[in-house]
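Incident log, structure service

09:12 report received: a user says their structure output differs between two submissions of the same chain.
09:20 pulled the input from the user's history:
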Amino acid sequence: MATEVPAEPAEQGVAAEKDRAGDGGSALGRIGGRFALLGAWLLVIVVFAIATPETFLSAANIQTILSSQAVLVVLTLGLIVPMTAGDYDLSISGVLSLSAMMLAVLNVEHHVPIALALVAVLAMGVITGMINSFFVIFMGIDSLIVTLGTTTVLTGIVLWISNSNTISGISPTLVDFVFVKQILGVAPEFYYGLLLCALLWYVFEFTTAGRRLLFVGRGRRVARLSGLRVNRIRMGALVAAGVISAIAGILYAGTTGAANPGSGTSFLLPAFAAAFLGATTILPGRFNPWGTVIAVYFLVTGITGLQLLGVQSFVQQLFYGGALVFAVSLAQLARGRRVEDVT
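09:34 re-ran on a clean worker, output below:
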């Protein structure tokens, strides 16, 4: 009969890691490493404010930057949960597309009340996470391969149920909930992203589940020897990613009032770029919520500034693609330094 193993091994491992991170290098160097991306973001803001003073710092542009990335923030926060446990989930884009399309089809075409449609969408997110878990954990297939296949299947389902058409006219109840009264001139969806960020930060830093998740990501074999139920933890992470991705799809549908069959595809590369770039700041070498949010807004600020300078729209693909390669390299260097500190 299986017994629940106490969390002490994981907690001690994470605590030891924090101690090692604090011992390496000077205090100034540690601070610089933790907040370098934040400083770079502020520098980018200053540069574009000087280059395009009339447009970049306008209230409308600032509101657009903050509000328009709420869906990406939520989606990326969902992505870093399984990544913290060492798994990659490419199906987040498919879940986003299908959740938005399910809402549209159920509510607009079949007149299902919006509350029931929301429950169905969240259930789909749970089921997708469980299917990914079965093939990744119990069948032993690499998470990249499984989730790539899953997102392809989900995209096919989206095209099937929508006849490859955009469906608009989603219940004003959902749209009104997303666009309630603005707070400090910024749409509420921005604060939804911050709320989720704060919640994940609390889970990662102050709960047993968060410490176990990090410990599993650092080394599954060691985690098993310490008595942790690694498979259960990985499954929980993949299911959480499915649910949060479904929430991102709900937010997308509420923001646009419609569902586009290809909506999720455009979010996948930016989400991975922001996740890896976020792992270079606040807690270098770790996927962390606050670093993720800073990375999202750093990237969109750069793209917006370049577009205001007249650079053509293809800069978005160049910027996100280059940022992904650069961020992965920096994340690897950060992890390498941690290993050197240990040895």
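09:41 both user submissions now match this output. Likely a transient worker issue. Closing.
09:42 reviewer note: Residues 1-10, 18-24, 339-343 have pLDDT under 50 and may be disordered. The chain has one domain: 36-342.
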